[in-house]
Amino acid sequence: MDWTAVKVITSSEAVEAVSYILTNEGAVGVQIDDAKDFANLKPGRYGKYGEIIDLQEIPHRKNGAAVTGYFPRNVFVPELISTIKGRVAKLKDYQLDPGAGLVVSEAVNNKDWATVWQKYYHPLRVTSQLTIVPQWEDYQPSSANEKLIFLDPGMAFGTGTHPTTRLMIEALEIVARGGESMIDVGTGSGVLSIAAKQLGVGQVAAYDIDEVAVRSAKKNIDLNPVAADVKVGVNSLLDGIHTQVDLIVANILAEIIVPLIPQAFENLKPGGRFLVSGIIKDKADLVERELKGHHFVIDQKLRMKDWYGMIAHKAVEGQE
């Protein structure tokens, strides 16, 4: 057995936070099984060979969510279980419902780990223009304006099915006009960078603190020739980055967005747009207050279920 899987049974609203806890404790990747994601599926060709099947026949969770972190065999997972349980329970302190908070572990081998989640991951139309397609699916666009994002998320999360990612892609579709420069903070699977390129954004730099996520992003970029020139690297937020761009996007937790805000202001051109998501309902006021306190103007708020996204711009002196 090559990996140990630690599964946390939680609520849909706590998925991102639990994912962060697992990676912070040493998981090299996560798998998310969220009942709310299944609710987004529409009737279509979900069979192995493209045949139309009843959605109810697809195995899925009926409620809540399970987040599974994968730990390499050199990590002694039993020592981590109590820590993970404690951190999950403390999510209540951040107004996040941890759900059952049950934490269990089991050994898995490479073959099982690599394929276990594929049955839950199908083509998903996320905006009027963009559809996310697993790289193993044979999918044809249904219209001339439909653009495809091919992903093999592997050990990184960010497949486009979670509301926070979908909110960010919608925000990109709203603001992108073509030719902009952009920084993608916390790129994960690289889905936002690829989406931006499909929408005509010009120069894109993508960063993540997790080397596994960076490798995953590079792999996904290779699946999408339109994104071939995206530059991907390891970095903590925008530490050490001093270059002004037109767009900065960040799909991360509100607690991490807050310290990013002054960095984003420094790295945006006057009037440049800052797109953020990953904000649970109870943290929306905090993020909005911090944005306004650092001379950002809120242009639009987006919401999907209990999650919020915001489009803001860097105020030009004397104007808003």
UniProtKB/TrEMBL annotation:
GO terms for molecular function: protein methyltransferase activity. GO terms for cellular component: cytoplasm; ribosome. This is Ribosomal protein L11 methyltransferase. S-adenosyl-L-methionine binds at residues 165, 186, 208, 251. Pfam families: PrmA. Methylates ribosomal protein L11. Belongs to the methyltransferase superfamily. PrmA family. Its main location: cytoplasm.
